Fold this sequence. Notes:
Chains A, B: Homodimer. Chain A is of the alpha+beta class and 220 residues long. The first copy, chain A, has helices spanning 4-17, 25-32, 36-48, 64-87, 96-102, 108-117, 164-173, 206-210, and strands at residues 52-54, 60-62, 143-144, 153-159, 180-186, 193-197, 200-204, 212-218. In chain A, the strands form two sheets. Chain A has a six-stranded antiparallel beta sheet. In chain A, helix 1 packs across helix 4 (64-87), helix 2 (25-32) crosses helix 3 and helix 4 (64-87) packs across helix 5 (96-102). The longest helix of chain A has 24 residues, at 64-87. The complex binds manganese (II) ion (4 copies). The site of one manganese (II) ion has 5 residues of chain B, from helix 4 and helix 5. One manganese (II) ion (MN) binds at residues 77, 81, 96, 99, 162 of chain A.
Amino acid sequence: MQSFTEENYLKIIYHLAELTNNVQTNSIAEKMQTKPASVTDMIKKLADKGFVDYIKYQGVTLTEKGRNAAIDIVRKHRLWEVFLVNKLNFKWDEVHDVAEELEHIKSVDLIERLDEFLGFPKSDPHGDPIPDKNGRFAKNHFTKLIELKIGDSGTITGVSQHSSAFLKHLEKLGLTLGKQIQINDVTDFDGSVEILVADKQINISREVAKHILISNNGKN
Amino acid sequence: MQSFTEENYLKIIYHLAELTNNVQTNSIAEKMQTKPASVTDMIKKLADKGFVDYIKYQGVTLTEKGRNAAIDIVRKHRLWEVFLVNKLNFKWDEVHDVAEELEHIKSVDLIERLDEFLGFPKSDPHGDPIPDKNGRFAKNHFTKLIELKIGDSGTITGVSQHSSAFLKHLEKLGLTLGKQIQINDVTDFDGSVEILVADKQINISREVAKHILISNNGKN
DNA sequence: AATAATTTTTAGATTTACCTAAAAATAAAA
DNA sequence: TTTTATTTTTAGGTAAATCTAAAAATTATT
Ligand SMILES: [Mn+2]
Ligand SMILES: [Mn+2]
Ligand SMILES: [Mn+2]
Ligand SMILES: [Mn+2]
């Protein structure tokens, strides 16, 4: 059984490993909002417990056991987010912090019943896939909106930024999950993108376009 | 903001204070499954923070602030128990341990929305009253089944023992909340009680009868 | 009132998760 | 290939919550 803190480390290592196989001490420290020295301490402990493989100065990788533990926490986090949005009427920008706490509740039974209660959802309110009880899930294969060309179209199916500020902004622009969009123009000056959504033409900044994920996109 | 541990101390002191106004160090230690020396340490801290009044060797009493904090935790615990039983189909004997964890999730918004989602329940699966968001609740005024006389009748509206073993036993006997019962006889030999429930005559031990709470009882 | 039993507190340690400052290793630049 | 910069680790320490053993206070019993 892992502590609250160990679970947070595992989850963060897991997410960082999605970007780079070998995860650096400093990246973990940044995400954990702690100091590199503390991370080294914890890494040693996680290695002792068999959750990570660790070579001094070479960063860490999750073991099978570590990855499973991490995926289990991700599963809980996302299921709770679905619960908060679908059952308790939270907005998608309000759920992350509460889910950060709920994900640590230890009861296999609880999470399986919750999954059932929610109708075995496949993705969370931000479009992220929810692992099943065996840890399996389809890896999303989205294109960033910023990478689309003029004339391309598709459906908003995810976001790669979960901050409340960003999500509220999208909401205001009407850019929510499931919405159909089309690229009309890309501004030379600042890289902002003109898109068509719900029959309206709007302009979004490059920064915003970077974090919107599109699927099912018909290239021009 | 209180820590997980502080919250548990406050809740336990609150429950003990329902029995005796001045709560002893040893009773707290027993309930917390810790040592008296640890309790003394924590009591000092809680006193510093203004949650309890404390005089050396004289035990503790909750301050207004401490009582409010404790009631808030009790409210969360009981609401989560209702959720687990009514929405996730847990049995009444399976919910306590999970609720012990869930009660520490810190989000006022969450618990108010949960309350609403559940339809503002007035009591939990064990018949215990649920404080409203202002901490107000009707204090139950039940009679222990053991105190009834032959011929008395009433409705099972609570239990004063929450162990899984006890609750499972009641379930098997058909002695669940809302059931109508009548006292038919009390055995001289062992103090066991003959009761009528759902047209069936059953015998329950003195120990069981002590922990069943009856309301609305028509005396003979 | 004196003695014994119980309860409670202090003293001193331990464990977990942190921290700062300095040393060591690795990577990048000159 | 040195030198410099960055990353990572070690060393030593702190705060929270716990523990054991022993001392002190309170309560109960003779
Ligand atoms: Mn989230
Ligand atoms: Mn999410
Ligand atoms: Mn309970
Ligand atoms: Mn209960």
